[in-house]
Amino acid sequence: MGNLALNTDEPEVLVAQTWRMLKDPRVRRLATEFGCQWLHVRELETLDEKSERHFPTFLALRGAMQEEAVRFFMDLFQENRSVLSILDSDHTFMNGALAQHYGLEIKGEDWQRVDGLRAKGRGGVLGFASTLAKQSGASRTSPILRGTWLSEVILGDKLPNPPKGVPVLPEEAPQGLTERQLTERHSSDPKCSGCHLRVDPFGFALEGFDAIGRARTIDASGLSIDANTKLPDGTQVSGLDGLRNWLVTTRRDEFLRQFCRKLLGYALGRGVQLSDTLLLDEMVAGMKAGDLSVATLINQIVLSPQFREVRGRDYISKH
C-alpha cells in the first residue's frame, strides 16, 4: 500500500482499485512488511540465537512461526476483519508441525485455518509462537522483553532508556529460581523498579509460555509457573486470557491509536507527523464510534490529502 500510485481523481475509483489490489495474492507483501515488521517478527525465520541444547526443535519451526503471522495479517486485510481481532481473534493459521508445537490436533499437514483458539489458551498475536519466541532469551523467557514489547509496540507507550550500569541477567535462572523470580529479584533494585513496575507485569502474565512459545505449567527445572499478576493500574489478571481481556477493554483506545499510527506511517512511507494529527484523530474516532473494520481505516488513508499528494502529480502520471 505504501507504493500505491493511481492516476485518478475519483474517490470511488481509488477505493475500488485499492481493494482490488488488497484481494490480490501479492497482499502478502503488506502482511510481511507491515504486520510482521510492526510485531518485530520480520526476520524470525532466520533467527539463530536460540540455544539448540534447550530448544532443538526451534530451527525447523521458525519459518512456520513467521508464516503464521504472515497468513494472519493477509486474512486481516483481505477479509476486512476488526482491528481488535489482532488481540482477541479466535482463529489463526498453522500447518501440522506448528499445530504439534502448540499441542493441537488438526487434519493433515497442510496450512489451514484453525478456530477455537481462545478455549485452548491462545488467541490473537499475544499467543503467537513468533512473538513469544522473539521476545525471549536464548535459553529462557524474558518477562522484561515481553513486557517492554507489549508496552511500546502494541500500546505505543514511551519508556525511558534504562539507566547505565544495570546488570545483565544470566541466560539461565539460578537453581531454585523461576525466570519470573529471577526478574523480580533484578527489578527490586531501586534504580530499575520504576520502569519494571510498568512492564514486568505484562511479561509475567505470559509466563505460561516458554521461550519458543509452547504452553507450560512448569519450567525446565520442574518449578511451577505463576502467570498471575497485578497490572500497573492495580488490576489483578491471570495469564494470557486475563491480560488480553484487560487490553481490549481498559487499554482499547491506546491500542487502536497505535495501530492507526503504524498503518498510516506505513502507507505514507514516512513517520507520522504533527500535520497528520487530524487524520489520525479521525481514524481513531471512527473506530471508537463502533466501526472497527480495517477497511474503514484504509479508505480514510487512501482518500486523504497526505496519501494522494505524497508523490506529487508529476510522479503519479509517470508511474
Please identify the structural class as seen in this structure.
mainly alpha
Number of helices: 15
pLDDT averaged residue by residue: 90
Separation, N- and C-terminal Cα atoms: 15 Å
This entry's quaternary arrangement is single chain
> How much strand content do the residues show?
under 5%
The order of strands across the largest sheet is 1-2
Kindly provide the radius of gyration, computed on alpha-carbon positions and rounded to a whole number of angstroms.
21 Å
The level of helicity is: 40-55%
Given as residue ranges, the uncertain stretches (5+ residues, pLDDT < 50) are: 312-319
* Number of beta-strand segments: 4
What overall geometry do the principal axes of the alpha carbons give? globular
Order of helices and strands: HHHHEHEHHHHEEHHHHHH
Question: Main β-sheet, in a few words?
Answer: 2 strands, antiparallel
